[in-house]
Amino acid sequence: MQTNLADFIKGTQDGDEAEAILRACVHCGFCTATCPTYQVLGDELDGPRGRIYLIKQVLEGAPVTQKTQLHLDRCLTCRSCETTCPSGVQYGRLADIGRRVVEERVERPLADRIKRMALREALPRSWLFRTAYRAGKLVRPFLSQDMQDKLRPAASAGKRPKREHARKMLVLEGCVQPAMGPNINASAARVLDAFGVQLISAPKAGCCGALRYHLNDQDGGLDDMRRNIDAWWPLVEQVEAIVMTASGCGVTVKEYGHLLAHDPAYAAKAQRIAELTRDLSEIMPQFEGDIAAKVKGKLAKRVAWHPPCTLQHGQQIRGKVEGVLRAAGVDVKLCADSHLCCGSAGTYSVLQPVLATELRDRKLAALHAAEPDIIVSANIGCVTHLQSGTETPVTHWIELIDQALA
User: Which terminus of the chain has a smaller tally of CB atoms within 10 A, N or C?
Assistant: First the structure.
């Protein structure tokens, strides 16, 4: 794709990166076949190829309108198109650059600005979100049905192990997960403890940075990343991995090296952190033999597995969770169109509720076709979003292993 970037971005860090990405695109259209929003809306501008053209026009100096912003807002950044693309176009990074420029040029309506500010300020602060979440559950009967569905009771965390082990790994506690799914990290800690690994956390680490970064507060997101690096750095030599139990956080932390590459104070540290980072599903296969010995036959459940986009497209991890669950003797099923997004996508389900609900219902219909006793995923956003539309229990997959070991 030929480009002629405007002076405002030509020769800049973002401009050089965007130009390389745009030139890689051969506009073949394969990406539209796997784009969730294109499947629903059928509009070329609501597919990756159309959005790439919109971003190209913006970066070449064309007028920017609210319509441009709308089509970019509707993108889930699920990165399914990246998996499909035969040319290796890094669409997700291009979308971040394009959205930032559009955000600077188009003023949003006041209500939209307030909503986005509230999300940027409340969600990354775990103490603030936890307080708001608890308050919401207290008044749940008086809220709309949609809000009630998002505030369903979470499993209690239970006790975390206190044993010391020679093998140690760091875990990111996260921002919304401690309130919405406190049992996830606790389950991971108990399971790893059973196999001789101590899971520790750094108290000052918080949001991975994705929430602010993808809400176009990129400077705020980078500051969150720097804070995590500072919190983890004293422990780096003591651990063999930094474990992510939320795949959405994992895909972001693995990109710290790229996102902070031009920060001389943090570039090397960010690269080291990214290299140490592993999704939990990358850690657990080494224990499949032990899992089979201790767990097999204890989980007589029919399980439907929903792989988050951040796992299968963002991190390019496939098959590992299924392998661990099958080692445990679980009858695990992968649904039709498993490559398509469920509609959660960080804050997308709040900012684009109509599209998010349509995608959720399509995903649940595919999952229910397997007649599961339980649905499992690997990201707190997916778990919560799917659970809001079904009475079938939806949990993180590590909770199943934890239950069986108990």
Answer: C
* Helix/strand/coil for 374: strand
Contact between 182 and 156 under an 8 Å Cβ cutoff? The reply is: yes
Which residue segments constitute the domains of the chain, with CATH numbers given? 13-105 (1.10.1060.10), 114-150 (no CATH), 167-282 (3.40.50), 288-405 (3.40.50.1860)
Give the DSSP H/E element, type plus range, for residue 110. Answer: helix 110-122
Q: Please classify residue 250 by burial: count the beta carbons closer than 10 Å to its beta carbon, then call 0-12 exposed, 13-18 middle and 19+ buried.
A: buried
One DSSP character per residue, 134-153 reads HHHHHTGGGS-HHHHHHTPP
Q: Are residues 178 and 130 in contact, defined by beta-carbon separation less than 8 angstroms?
A: yes
pLDDT of the chain along its 406 residues, tens only? 788 899 999 999 999 999 999 999 998 989 999 999 999 999 999 999 999 999 999 999 999 999 999 999 999 999 999 999 999 999 999 999 999 999 999 999 999 999 999 999 988 888 888 888 788 777 777 777 777 777 777 777 788 999 999 999 999 999 999 988 999 999 999 999 999 999 999 989 999 999 999 998 999 999 999 999 999 999 999 999 999 999 999 999 999 999 999 999 999 999 999 999 999 999 999 999 999 898 877 787 899 999 999 999 999 999 999 999 999 988 888 899 999 999 999 999 999 999 999 999 999 999 999 999 999 999 999 999 999 999 999 999 999 999 988 8
Instruction: Rounding to the nearest 10 degrees, give the CA dihedral for residues 126, 128, 133, 134.
Output: 110
Strand partners, 394: 375
Q: Give the rounded distance of the alpha carbon of 43 from its chain centre.
A: 25
